[in-house]
Amino acid sequence: MKFTLSWLREHLDTDADLDVIVETLTRIGLEVEGVHNPGDALKAFRVAEVLTAERHPQADKLQVLSVDAGDGALQVVCGAPNARAGLIGVFGPPGAYVPGLDVTLKVAAIRGVESNGMMCSTRELELGEDHDGIIELPADAPVGTPFPDYAGLNDAVIDISVTPNRQDCMGVRGIARDLAAAGLGTLKPLTVPRSPVRPEPVEGHLSTSVTPAERGASTSSARTDVVPVEAPDVRTDDPAGCPAFYAQNVSGVANGESPEWLRRRLTAIGQKPISALVDITNYVSIDLGRPLHVYDRATLSGGLVARKAEDGEQVLALNGKTYTLDATMTVIADDAQVHDIAGIMGGEHSGVSADTTDVLIECAYFDPDHIARTGQKLLLTSDARQRFERGVDPAFLDDGLAIATRLVLDLCGGTPSPVTRAGEPPLAPRVHAYDPAKAETLGGLAVPADRQRAILESLGFVVGDDWQVTVPTWRRDVDGAADLVEEVIRIEGIDKVAPVPLPRTPGVAKPTATPEQKLERRVRRAAAARGLDEAVTWSFLSEAQAAPFGGGAWSLANPISEDLKVMRPSLLPGLLSATARNLKRGVTAVRLFEVGRRYLAEAERPTVGVVLAGNRRERGWREGKGAGFDAYDAKAEALALLAAAGAPVDNLQVMGEAGDAWHPGQSGTLRLGSKTVLARFGMLHPSLLKAFDLDGAVAAVEVYLDALPARRASGFMRPAFAPPALQSVRRDFAFLVPAGVSADALVRAVRGADKAAIVAARVFDVFTGVGVEDGHASVAVEVTLQPIDKSFTDADLKALADKVVAAAAKQGASLRG
Amino acid sequence: MSEDLDTLRDHLLTAIPAAASPEALEALRVEALGKQGSVTQLLKTLGKMTPEQRQSDGPRINGLREAVADAIATRKASLDRAALDARLASETLDMTLPAEAPLAGTVHPVSQVMDELAEIFADLGFAVATGPEIETDWHNFTALNIPETHPARAMHDTFYLQQGLDAKAGGTFDERATFSLLRTHTSPVQIRTMLQQQPPIRIIAPGRTYRSDSDATHTPMFHQVEGLVIDKGITLGHLKWTLETFLKAFFERDDIVLRLRPSYFPFTEPSAEVDVGYTIEKGKRVIGGSGGGWMEVLGSGMVHPKVIAACGLDPEEWQGFAFGCGIDRLAMLKYGMDDLRPFFDGDIRWLKHYGFSALDVPTLSGGVGAGA
């Protein structure tokens, strides 16, 4: 919401300067987003007279002027065709910045003749489009005066952000009222013409604050030859959507350009002046927050009715678009067609034009919820909608209409009709019981009751002796005691609220993170400690990226793009995209992880994703050639993260079936039991990688934190430390193992050979090739034997070795000779 | 006899220290102390001596044996040492060659700041709460006093889910149960917490949030932290203290200055936006003081009575405050990133630059912030 300082002062009688006003606006909740003084940019420019104009000796199209800008004659070279002796224009001295040219003037020779500045055109000063010649000011313009002062450009434009609850501040008057309540002067009374009048022409001046004397004079001078104008034929058949439809006709108007003051005011706040009738509706809307609509009566057939649209009914709106309506929407229509999407946008057909002579001015009250729903459905927003859906003042229909009509008469002439009032605006008083103690018990600020009463009254509330508070009609947002506290606090000064410590919760401080959160933290820091970099990637991705991971269960109806369309079923696609970007940037080793959710049909699941790509080991003087990542690197990460998460890693089963996204021979799942999949790991499928524009092999892990068994709370005590009394013994076995028998199966069998004595078994060498039978591998296993009561004898060891060999034989493995 | 002894002594105690190698030394040892050695032979003569003779010669002969044995041991140590020195000298390597670089991973700034927040608020008695990111209309809007026609809904640029639209079309839409949108703020966690838990309540709820917005300063996904206190007798004064305490602890500065501005959120009344003062240091905005101006950091207010009632609590009995704050923005203000978009790119160079060591666990005793 933009307005100028002078505009504000039409409503607010104040001595406060701009800085105080700006500071106060923000302090009371009308946040100032910007202040701009258009005059500042043109400070250096002055009103100047061209004393003489002679042809440039070296150029036909240039003239050499002698210019007086108040300090005596200066020589200026000028190319404008209208430059001539006696012209009063706008002069820019050396040092002035010309915004339309983006240059700073300096003394320079132009074709050999020195020029000490510039006479400017409208476009050069960014005051308009005209560039046919230099600006010509009236002959009485005072030479030497700074141009912004002469042209009235020193009028700061203030831009405030109006929160959705404050419809009343979508009009300059509402802002003035708030400032007055905050102690910045007094709100000027709003003078409203009470009856249709035949006005005398008023010379280009604001007439919303016409004095009673003026009004009396107008009335007394009403001419007798006026043909009475019939009151408009309007009614509402949709009292829910349009409870009240007031209207007034004016006949015999001339819809020309608005007067200078009105055009300047609209232009200053970025509105384009169109024609007097259109400008008047915009002006009243911005000035008083009262939207209006003006119809060209020549285009209407029969009376106007506010009614529900018919399903499929169409209207061509003023923005040039055709809207298809449905039966929930309120429209204004005549016998022939729809002329207005009620309260949102008028129709093209009945809009006013330069030829308009007879108009109907609509001042209606539309139900905010109806307006909001219609606007949302049509995806159509407008200044009118913004005001109506926030709730305009239902008690301001008569006054708004009278002010608008008066402006029409003033600016366009014509003869007004009586007012037609169809329906009733919702005017039931809204009264809330208020306890002034609440300012302190809720707002934290003790404000004396008298002061609270004064604040509320200055905002238009009526406060009874019993603290029954009646809400002003323009404050639809105030709905209870808490709102009244807010009014008091914001005007008194929310900065005065003193901080009060929250009492400490009694008792021993308990951990405030849930077990799930602690788990995520551990896993995250474990991953970072292992050299992985944590990324945060989008929760959404393309359907194609989701497909190899089971597809997205949730898709956005209004995605930003097709690339961000479905909620991710896996963390890997996002990490793979990041990996590809990194490799393209020349990063040689990618170790990325993310802790986040995957979004399944039934729930959001906490997950860790890891992607390893590029070099696991860079080439080096000790290690020689570099090496890439393989599936065992992925397995190591999976187990490390699971261990950090507290999973029983020694009891996990390694199984296949990682899924379509994975290399079928170099991937697996880590399971607790045979069903619960805790993690997937391995190399990714080359065709998946291709879709991500990745060439080389990529290893990956996905750990499903939600699948982990909950850790049992066991207190702080650990079991007693009891190291074995006797030293363990190691024995090595080399087996010839047929293909298809997994190392895991062999080791499990070996471990199971004597559950008491064998405490560990691990593969320490795997070999295929020369000396090993085809279709077999040599697998060397180190077995740790732990004596309990007494040391092993040779016979004990022999017996144990036989058990190991026998157990391995059941898996098809034989001891290598 | 005594002359022989002196001669032998001179010979051995000169030769032994001069032995050039372990082998030469061993030869001398055999010569003196071996079975047939000269000193051994002398020792054997002791048995045949008269007592008087033994009394005079015994100590001299034994003394010679000891002196020779000591000399041999000393020389042996010396030769061993020289041999070791020589071997070590031959093993010299170029100590300037590079060692293997340690693998150093990083924690993302968003995670780090979330941990910092949890630590700061734990000290104030706030638990960490979570909720779904795929939400219902009711939790995200209606229960928060944002009815369907409320203009604030338009401000939220909500991502809607096809599943919700389908449910609407199919007549199975349940505002309270149909997951129909991506949460636009962390405020629905307020609702879920109040529905699940009896007051008093003190929680923060950090997490991902979504709005259909993408430009230089907005990303369609971002992170927020919500704070909620519901208790008896809670006022705007408690809110102000909590925010001040939090921001001072977060930026680890005493000169944090807050400015509350009245504002509007449908779910709080009164509502306030909170600005924090900054100063300009070396051309950069640094939080603290207010010489440079004000920066908006969070929105807050007293929980609206309608919200409390929507969660089944009596607003006459319980009141409290809530606030919401952008985590990404907090991270940027504290650690100096000036662009939001790289947060979600996964650029390893950026992660290495702005990320945190796994060991930088925020603690109150060690300071919640991690230095560069």
From TrEMBL, chain A:
SMART domains: B3_4 (SM00873), B5 (SM00874), FDX-ACB (SM00896). It comes from the Bacteria. Residues 724-816 form the FDX-ACB domain. Coiled coil: none annotated. One of its GO terms (biological process) is phenylalanyl-tRNA aminoacylation. One of its GO terms (molecular function) is phenylalanine-tRNA ligase activity. It catalyses: tRNA(Phe) + L-phenylalanine + ATP = L-phenylalanyl-tRNA(Phe) + AMP + diphosphate + H(+). Its cofactor is Mg(2+). Gene3D superfamilies: 3.30.56.10, Bira Bifunctional Protein, Domain 2, Ferrodoxin-fold anticodon-binding domain, Nucleic acid-binding proteins, Phenylalanyl-trna Synthetase, Chain B, domain 3. Its EC number is 6.1.1.20. GO terms for cellular component: phenylalanine-tRNA ligase complex. Residues 206-223 have a biased composition (Polar residues). NCBIfam families: pheT_bact (TIGR00472), YtpR (NF045760). Tetramer of two alpha and two beta subunits. Belongs to the phenylalanyl-tRNA synthetase beta subunit family. Type 1 subfamily. HAMAP family: Phe_tRNA_synth_beta1. This is Phenylalanine--tRNA ligase beta subunit. The gene is pheT.
UniProtKB/TrEMBL annotation, chain B:
Pfam families: Phe_tRNA-synt_N (PF02912), tRNA-synt_2d (PF01409). Residues 111-342 form the Aminoacyl-transfer RNA synthetases class-II family profile domain. Mg(2+) binds at E269. CDD domains: PheRS_alpha_core (cd00496). One of its GO terms (molecular function) is ATP binding. Its cofactor is Mg(2+). Binds 2 magnesium ions per tetramer. It is found in: Cytoplasm. It is an enzyme of class 6 (ligase). It catalyses: tRNA(Phe) + L-phenylalanine + ATP = L-phenylalanyl-tRNA(Phe) + AMP + diphosphate + H(+). SUPFAM superfamilies: Class II aaRS and biotin synthetases, tRNA-binding arm. This is Phenylalanine--tRNA ligase alpha subunit. It comes from Sphingomonas liriopis. The gene is pheS.
